[in-house]
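STRUCTURE REQUEST FORM
Protein name: DUF2939 domain-containing protein
Source organism: Parerythrobacter lacustris
Requested output: structure tokens
Priority: standard
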Amino acid sequence: MRKWRLLGALGVVVAGGVYGGSPYFAASNLRETAAKGDADALDELVDFPSVRESLKAQMNAAMMAKMQSDPEMANNPFAGLGMMLAPAIIERAVDAYVTPEGMAAIVRGKKPAEASEAEVANKEPDYKSEWVDLDTFRVTPVGQETNDPMPSFIFKRQGFASWELTKIEFPENFLGSG
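Status: completed
Returned output:
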């Protein structure tokens, strides 16, 4: 009887370890896969349509806020045209950047336009990880050379111990600066 209790307790500890450790493993797996540029493996780790849609929404909101708060745009007769064209431009830009190569740059803490092979392979940033809730996990690269805010990678649970990247939350000035 005692043997079965011990085995049961051990099973609970192992299951808890797998449950609690699985998002860390998923984040590490994403970093390694993105660094290799393995498109097939990235497709299994990243929900690309979900990531693209979240980025489009973030970028559209940021663009509209910038256009509405810019005093020069208030007096510009072409501002309305710009606001109408912005979503189409953003959609194309996001579709171009949310690729295995762009993802490799983002995971390495670079902007997608900085995705040159030599530069991406240079440095591995440090990462800060946190649980948002039981089914959501956030990983944020910590800039080594600057204190610039970095994008956060949001993972969602897909079963007991399986995770998928579903969203990248960019700081307001990450893609628009430089």
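Reviewer notes: Residues 118 and 144 are 18 Å apart (CA to CA). The longest strand covers residues 126-133.
Form closed.
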